[in-house]
Design a protein that fits this description.
The chain has eleven helices and no strands. The protein binds protoporphyrin IX containing FE (2 copies).
Amino acid sequence: MEDYGRFLALLASALLVGFVSVILSLVWVFHYREGLSWDGGLGEFNWHPVLIITGFVFVQGIAIIVYRLPWTWKCSKLLMKFIHAGLNTIAMILAIVSMVAVFEFHNAKNIPNMYSLHSWIGLTAVIFYSLQLFLGFAVFLLPFAPVHLRVALMPIHVYSGLTIFATVIATALMGITEKLIFALKSPAYSASPPEATLVNCLGLLLVIFGSLILWMASRPHWKRPPAENAKILRPIGATPDGTEVESTLTKSSNADKSDLRSNTEAARKQNIKTFDEAGQRSTM
Ligand code: HEM
Ligand code: HEM
């Protein structure tokens, strides 16, 4: 891998910053706020920031870069897909529980729902995230989608995944700001009490975490090598072992099969071009 040392340094920084963010969110709710509970009170609201930062920010960030860990490149693509999809599913579950907490809190306290920009953008991000998760499973994990659909959807999958992730960080920053303005009365937020400084630092760490993940996920030379593509490009009869790619392909439509079985030099070049156009990502 090119720049292995730099990748490791960025990964270690992202893990550290993400971990410290989770700890700071816990310090915030336990030391400065009412702790955690599930009784319609402020303790229930506090699950909202804690689960969002743990699940929707930290776990989602790791899910996004998991394909790029060089020591996983020897693992099968199918295993990595399960890890990527599994981590994203955990993030989704934690985000949903955190939303239930804030809605229940609002209803118990007769606070109107969905009035703020934070809540509009936040709910939109959760809806798009669930759509992304569903489509990810349907297109890239289950063996039914034809190869041309996978190739066409992969750049959209990557773009929308990164956009949703950036939106989630922005939403968290809005939520943090709102909470500080609502909760800090005497001394007020504008008087910069220690809680405000701690939580401002938490916001800064979330921006740094997001930037590190987006940087690592957008370097072309740190992408998982398209070794599986090489297998796709080989004629099926010539593959030495029964790979995941091959078995998935075998189940795809006849048109795709005949395309991929083509062993002519022209077809190989066309296939290489198609995968190059898809950002050289293995979609299988
Ligand atoms: C409320 C989503 C992060 C603080 C809400 C509501 C939604 C939401 C949908 C509306 C609930 C209702 O109307 O009953 C999200 C999402 C987040 C996120 C998707 C992650 C990206 C945060 C964070 C904080 C926070 C990190 C920090 C404390 C608040 C506050 C409210 C709220 C104070 C109540 C005021 C309002 O409705 O805007 N959130 N939130 N949120 N959230 Fe978040
Ligand atoms: C790649 C996001 C769900 C399959 C990616 C990438 C992002 C992303 C940002 C680019 C990673 C990179 O360039 O290294 C998401 C998000 C999801 C989600 C936010 C959930 C909401 C899924 C699911 C599957 C899936 C359920 C099904 C297995 C893939 C595949 C790649 C990928 C095959 C290409 C990996 C490569 O470059 O080798 N995803 N994804 N994704 N995702 Fe997802």
